[in-house]
Amino acid sequence: MWGRNVYDSIAKFLQFQLTVNVVAVVVAFVGACAIQDTPLKAVQMLWVNLIMDTLASLALATEMPTEDLLKRKPYGRTSPLISRTMSKNILGHAFYQLLILFALIFAGERFFEIESGRWAALHSPPSEHFTIVFNTFVMMTLFNEINARKIHGERNIFTGLFSNPIYYVIWIATMVAQIFIVQFGGRWFSTAALNLEQWLWCLAFGVGVLLWGQVVTTIPTSGLPKNMAIGGGDVTSTENILSGEYEDPATHEKRSGQILWIRGLTRLQTQVILL
């Protein structure tokens, strides 16, 4: 059970991290090409990376095993680390987040009736426009961290949410830190303080990740291409090596070395057991 829990913890972290990476890289690249500027400043990306790497790894990798783990088959040696369900979640949530962020980048100033930050001068003060983009990205990342707790297509993403104090303490602390960064960290984080209405919209886009997750879950995994599963492979059995099944002359010398090495290791293990 513990082995399955460790495997699931790694998979949860990968699902969350890859989603954030895809969104951040695409936004930075398109922003650099379209407006010759990045909507997310360097120090803001450092904060996102702190959320994505250090804090998320502590939050997602510290969940205790549950009895539900025993209801599933054990993972095989060739099981993919990123399953088709995980790939579906990564691409599905990346699509939603990119759609929201690009809408805010290219039309957000008209929606919120604020000054555009796309063509701001080089040393101009931080704009509300790009602060909303940054804040929305962090909100969607935080709420997607709740989605990332489930990697097998479960619908109830809140099951066991409060069973891990480390998880919800980190989540709440990150939310509080984000509020202080936006409202009071303008000098260091290139942000402008937002009003209540703007904050509510950012939170609404973040909560939308949870609702969108239910839509993504509805997509049947069985209909997806098998090559969407990443990280699997064939494992050569040592029994096949020892039995001399490989008769290709070009690899005979290499196989002979493997046979001698495996036999020596087997004898060493036998001697250790006898001692």
From TrEMBL:
It comes from the Eukaryota. It is found in: Endomembrane system. GO terms for molecular function: metal ion binding; P-type calcium transporter activity. Residues 38-217 form the Cation-transporting P-type ATPase C-terminal domain. It is a multi-pass membrane protein. One of its GO terms (biological process) is regulation of cytosolic calcium ion concentration. PANTHER family: CALCIUM-TRANSPORTING ATPASE, CATION TRANSPORTING ATPASE. This is Cation-transporting P-type ATPase C-terminal domain-containing protein. It comes from Wuchereria bancrofti.
